[in-house]
Amino acid sequence: MLPDLPSLPRPASDVAAGITRGVRRMLADRAIRTLVEFPLANGRRADVLGLAEDGEIVIVEVKSGAVDFKTDHKWQDYLAFCDRFYFAVGPDFPLDLIPAACGLLVADAFGAETVRESPVDRLPAARRKAVILRAALAAAARLHRVEDPGRVPAGG
Fold first, then answer.
1. Which of 53, 76, 132, 155 has the greatest number of beta carbons closer than 10 A?
2. What is the mean pLDDT of the chain?
3. What is the rounded distance in angstroms from the CA atom of residue 87 to the CA atom of residue 76?
């Protein structure tokens, strides 16, 4: 009998989980590797953090509905940790709520479409290095928990 695998970070709702899955599929098709529920140095958690081969860093904030968007104002805290920032919403979301200065993706559990590209605001080299190192450590710790579920690595 196989041991139970540890639970990995999951979105808060089934709707958000479907949007997240579609976003990750789209980003993977663009050769952007992702982590979910990624802890940033400022204490916030990005719903999806993406790393491209050229070092570009993408953050996607998933919104499951209009109420979720209207009651959550922390998204601006993510901007200092990415080159591109997107909101991802479901097909029934009222798109006019999303600020025009942000990228916009519409997603379901099977994929996502870009409605509006994100402006690019390049991170300083030191911040980029810090985010990439933090992502590498988080990914390695998550993989370790899957490969050796009875053992939690220090710091992870």
1. 132
2. 91
3. 11
